[in-house]
Design brief:
about 375 residues; alpha/beta; TIM Barrel; 2 domains; three-stranded antiparallel β-sheet
C-alpha cells in the first residue's frame, strides 16, 4: 500500500454560544505564539486547523486532523516526505517524520490507514482495549459564580459526573465549589485548571483548606508554574487536594517533554496526570505512570471529531486511564466534521469499533467551515 496523495483542508470551527467563558470575562486560552501575537491573546476557536485526507494506491483513504495553528511549511514538508511511502512498513510508534507539533495529525491518519487495511479498530494496533467506553467530564472556561453553578447544573442534568473549570486568582473558586455542591450534590466533582495561574503555593494555601471542607474537588490541575515541580510536591504535602500535572507534548516550544512524567514521579510531585499528545505517546506516558501507580486522563485542545476518535482509541488501550478525560469537542464546537458524532451518554463516550479510527468525514460540514 503506497500513499499517492494527501489533501490538507484548512478549517475554522467556532464554539457554540455560552460554552466557554461568561460574557463579562475575556480570557483567550491559546497558550502559544500565533502569527506574531503573544500567548493568551487569541481564543482557540478563532484559529484554523487542518483536516487531512490521505489517499493510497489501494483505494483506502485515511483521515487525520492537526492541532490548531500548526506551521504550514512543516505540514507541507511532511506531506512531501510521505508521498510514495508504505504505512504498512512504518513503525507506528515512531513514524519517519520530524517530531513537532505537526506530528500527531499525520499519526492519526497512519493509524487510520493501517487499521482499515487490516480491518481492525486502531486500539488493536496498540495491543487491545481495556474498556469499551471512556469516562469524560463536561467542560467550560472561566465563569462568574452564578454561571459556574449554572453550567455545572446543566452538566449534571445531562448525565455527567464532573466538570472542569478554567480559573485564576481573581475567581472565587470556593464559592463555585459550594454552589456546585448545593446544586449537584457532593458526588459531582470539580477539576480546577488555572493553567498555572495560581502563581505560588502560598496563594493556593489561602483557600485550599476551604476547598477541602467543601469536599467536591477532584483535583487541582497545573495550579502553579510547572517548571517548579518542587512546588507541586510542596502542595501535596500541605493539602489533601489531589494535584495533577498536565503534560502536553504539542507544547514542545514551551518545553514540555515526555521526560516531565519521569521527573514528576521521581519527585513524588503529583497524584494524577493529564496527558495530551498523539496516540502512541499517550500510551507510552500512561504506561510509565501506571508503573508508578498513578492514574491519568486524556487532555485536549478542544478538538474536532477525528482527533477525538484518536483520543478514544488511546484511552481504551491505556490500563490506568481511569480518570474522566477531556473529550468534549462536540459539546463546545459548532460541528465536529464527522458524519456520526461521538455519542456521549451519562458521561461516557463509546470507543469506535469500525476499522481504523472508525469515523467518516462529513463533506458538507467540511465545506461549510473551510477557509482560505
Amino acid at each position: 500500500m503506497r500513499i499517492t496523495g494527501i489533501e490538507k483542508i484548512k478549517v475554522v470551527v467556532p464554539s457554540k454560544p455560552d460554552t466557554v467563558n461568561s460574557p463579562e470575562l475575556r480570557d483567550p486560552m491559546h497558550m502559544l505564539v500565533l502569527d506574531g501575537k503573544p500567548a493568551w491573546q487569541v481564543q482557540f476557536d478563532q484559529i484554523w486547523k487542518y483536516v487531512y485526507r490521505v489517499w493510497t494506491d489501494e483505494g483506502i483513504e485515511g483521515l487525520g486532523e492537526s492541532y490548531r495553528g500548526v506551521n504550514s511549511q512543516v505540514v507541507d514538508g511532511i506531506i512531501a516526505s510521505l508521498i510514495g511511502a508504505d504505512p504498512m512498513k512504518m513503525n507506528l510508534r515512531d513514524l519517519p517524520i520530524a517530531w513537532s507539533r505537526e506530528y500527531d495529525g499525520f499519526e492519526a491518519a497512519m493509524f487510520d490507514l493501517v487499521g482499515k487495511k487490516l480491518g481492525v479498530p486502531a486500539y488493536r494496533l496498540l495491543g487491545g482495549a481495556y474498556r469499551e467506553a471512556i469516562d469524560v467530564d463536561c467542560w467550560t472556561g472561566r465563569r462568574t459564580t452564578a454561571d459556574a453553578v449554572r453550567k455545572a447544573r446543566e452538566g449534571c442534568e445531562a448525565g455527567f459526573h464532573g466538570i472542569k473549570f478554567k480559573c485564576n486568582l481573581q475567581d472565587d473558586v470556593v464559592a463555585w465549589a459550594e454552589g456546585v455542591r448545593e446544586a449537584c450534590g457532593p458526588a459531582f466533582r470539580i477539576v480546577l485548571d488555572p493553567n498555572a495561574r495560581f502563581e505560588r503555593p502560598a496563594e493556593v494555601l489561602r483557600f485550599a483548606r476551604q476547598l477541602e471542607a467543601v469536599g467536591n474537588i477532584q483535583c487541582l490541575e497545573d495550579p502553579v508554574p510547572r517548571w517548579n515541580l518542587h512546588w507541586y510536591r510542596l502542595l501535596r504535602e500541605k493539602t489533601a487536594l489531589p494535584i495533577a500535572l498536565h503534560v502536553a507534548l504539542p507544547y514542545l516550544e514551551l518545553g514540555q517533554m515526555l521526560q516531565d512524567t519521569v521527573k514528576a514521579i521521581q519527585l513524588e510531585a503529583v497524584d494524577y496526570f493529564n496527558f495530551n499528545c498523539g496516540i502512541a505517546n499517550f500510551v507510552r506516558m500512561a504506561d510509565v505512570a501506571d508503573a508508578a501507580g498513578i492514574p491519568c486522563w486524556h487532555g485536549s485542545e478542544v478538538d474536532l471529531g477525528i482527533l477525538e476518535a484518536a483520543y478514544l482509541h488511546a484511552c481504551a488501550a491505556a490500563r490506568n486511564c481511569t480518570l474522566r478525560s477531556d473529550i468534549f469537542g462536540e459539546l463546545v464546537r459548532e460541528d465536529d466534521l464527522i458524519l456520526a458524532p461521538h455519542e456521549i451518554k451519562n458521561g461516557r463516550a463509546p470507543v469506535p469499533q469500525a476499522p481504523g479510527l472508525g469515523v467518516q468525514l462529513d463533506p458538507k460540514a467540511v465545506e461549510k467551515y473551510r477557509v482560505g
